[in-house]
């Protein structure tokens, strides 16, 4: 009896009618004062679940249930229960509330977020992102000029994301076409940023490995010349002035 | 044994797979909102409750499933289009009540029928409800209660809101309406709605009455 009293967890002993025989001090701290039957300790919604464990069985079982606490109407607990040969059940209640509490707060955040999300706007944004990607794909088409020659005009600003998309497409097309000379045309190119230049020079290097010959750049504007020079990149390329010179000049 | 569609949906919610859950809903042959709510979402969430009772899942799993279900509802049932200015409704759960998915679906049904709605979700204290009702003057106020412990305050909500000068119709919904007789709480001042079918029926009759009036 004294042993029971001093147990460091909420503990109850009940007979097979569910009447409480003894409980630990911790159980008294957790539950309402006037608990006589095990049922009284549990929230109504947990009664059905509890019933499944009220017939003596072998071994021990564990389940989750809401306990009516002294300070709170629902205390979520892990319930451990076992029956002994004399027909008494030994029950330990471990509150799990604190574990789930963090989760509940996260869920509440999520709920607030959902309530404030304008989903129409959200879907427009997704559609826009899709369109941007498509735009990137179309900003660096590889155009075969002859069996040995291909031409890649770069449209718009050279950014990292755009170059990543262009790189994938160009490498694939270059591999399939087996071109000897690949010309990159900057005539239609706008701004160039540093990350974009890095990706661009990587692409040139990859093409050189594939073809065994450096790519050639045409249509460099004065603005680009300055920008390309500032970024300290070792360009594996030749420069030509224009496509016209390449096609007809030689 | 083949598992039902509701069970499949429940599994997807429990796995936290919102993308697959959305695909699953989009692939349903009948895209009527009412049918999806009644035959898929509601039974799926009840099933999750049963799984907890059978000790197959934990409360943490339930929370995850609730979050995913909420996301899918929000994402799939966008409301747009014409709103009637003279059909207004507000919906919320009683203070302390966290089971908000049902009332969210009811809110969505009203919106579909062209109502302008205010949805407050879980746990709205009476004083806020009253303040908002005074401002908005909704013809319909829907309350939801799912836990017995929260019942005692229901009477107070009904009495207070029924006393509003513009005399709104008060609807009581939630899981408890099917399990218990809530008439004593409704006190002849509110209408008890046991499920989505009844909600739709009430809504249709209400609209008819207004046309005939």
What this model shows, in words?
The complex is a heterodimer of chains A (250) and B (213). Chain A is built from 9 helices and 12 strands. With 250 residues, chain A is α/β, with parallel strands linked by helices. Chain A folds into 2 domains: 99 residues, Beta-Lactamase, CATH 3.30.450; 116 residues, Transcription Regulator spoIIAA, CATH 3.30.750.24. In chain A, the strands form 3 sheets. Chain A has a 5-stranded antiparallel beta sheet. In chain A, helix 8 links the parallel strand 11 and strand 12. In chain A, helix 6 packs parallel to helix 7. The longest helix of chain A has 20 residues. The radius of gyration of chain A is 37 Å and the shape is rod-shaped. The termini of chain A are far apart. By secondary structure, chain B is of the alpha/beta class. Chain B has 2 domains: 72 residues, Methionine synthase domain (Methyltransferase, Methionine Synthase (B12-binding Domains), Chain A, domain 1); 125 residues, 3-Layer(aba) Sandwich (Rossmann fold). Chain B contains 10 helices and 5 strands. In chain B, strands 2-1-3-4-5 form a 5-stranded parallel beta sheet, with helices on both faces. In chain B, helix 5 links the parallel strand 1 and strand 2. In chain B, helix 1 packs across helix 3, helix 1 crosses helix 4 and helix 2 crosses helix 4. The N and C termini of chain B lie far apart (52 Å). In chain B, 36% of the residues are buried. The model of chain B has no long low-confidence stretch (mean pLDDT 91).
């Amino acid at each position: 009896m004294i042993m029971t009293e001093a147990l460091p967890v909420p503990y109850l002993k009940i007979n097979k009618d569910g009447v409480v025989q003894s409980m630990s001090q911790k159980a008294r701290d957790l539950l309402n004062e006037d608990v006589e039957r095990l049922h009284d300790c549990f929230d109504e919604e947990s009664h059905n679940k509890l019933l499944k464990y009220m017939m003596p069985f072998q071994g021990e079982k564990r389940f989750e249930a809401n306990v009516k606490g002294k300070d709170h109407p629902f205390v979520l607990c892990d319930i451990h229960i076992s029956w002994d040969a004399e027909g008494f059940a030994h029950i330990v209640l471990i509150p799990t509330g604190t574990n789930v509490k963090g989760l509940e707060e996260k869920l509440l955040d999520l709920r607030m977020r959902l309530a404030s999300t304008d989903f129409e706007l959200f879907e427009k944004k997704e559609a826009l992102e899709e369109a941007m990607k498509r735009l990137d794909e179309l900003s660096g088409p590889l155009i075969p000029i002859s069996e040995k020659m291909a031409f890649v005009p770069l449209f718009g600003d050279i950014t990292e994301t755009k170059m990543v998309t262009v790189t994938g497409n160009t490498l694939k097309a270059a591999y399939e076409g087996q071109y000897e000379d690949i010309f990159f045309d900057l005539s239609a190119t706008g701004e160039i940023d540093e990350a974009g230049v890095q990706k661009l020079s990587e692409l040139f290097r990859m093409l050189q490995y594939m073809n065994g010959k450096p790519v050639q750049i045409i249509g460099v504007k004065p603005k680009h010349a300055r920008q390309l020079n500032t970024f300290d990149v070792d360009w594996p390329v030749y420069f030509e002035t224009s496509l016209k010179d390449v096609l007809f000049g030689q | 044994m083949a598992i039902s569609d509701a069970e499949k949906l429940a599994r997807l919610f429990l796995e936290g797979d919102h993308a697959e859950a959305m695909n699953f809903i989009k692939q349903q042959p009948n895209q009527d909102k009412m049918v999806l709510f009644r035959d898929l979402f509601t039974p799926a969430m009840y099933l999750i409750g049963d799984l907890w009772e059978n000790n197959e899942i934990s409360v943490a799993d339930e929370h995850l499933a609730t979050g995913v279900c909420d996301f899918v509802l929000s994402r799939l049932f966008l409301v747009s289009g014409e709103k009637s200015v003279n059909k207004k409704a507000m919906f919320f759960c009683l203070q302390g009540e966290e089971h908000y998915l049902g009332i969210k679906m009811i809110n969505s049904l009203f919106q579909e029928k062209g109502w302008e709605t205010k949805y407050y979700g879980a746990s709205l204290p009476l004083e806020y409800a009253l303040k908002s009702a005074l401002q908005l003057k909704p013809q319909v106020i829907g309350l939801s209660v799912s836990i017995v412990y929260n019942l005692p305050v229901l009477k107070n909500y009904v009495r207070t809101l029924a006393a509003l000068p513009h005399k709104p119709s008060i609807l009581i919904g939630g899981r408890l309406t099917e399990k218990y007789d809530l008439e004593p709480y409704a006190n002849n001042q509110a209408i008890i709605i046991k499920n989505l079918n009844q909600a739709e029926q009430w809504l249709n009759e209400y609209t008819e009455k207004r046309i005939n009036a």
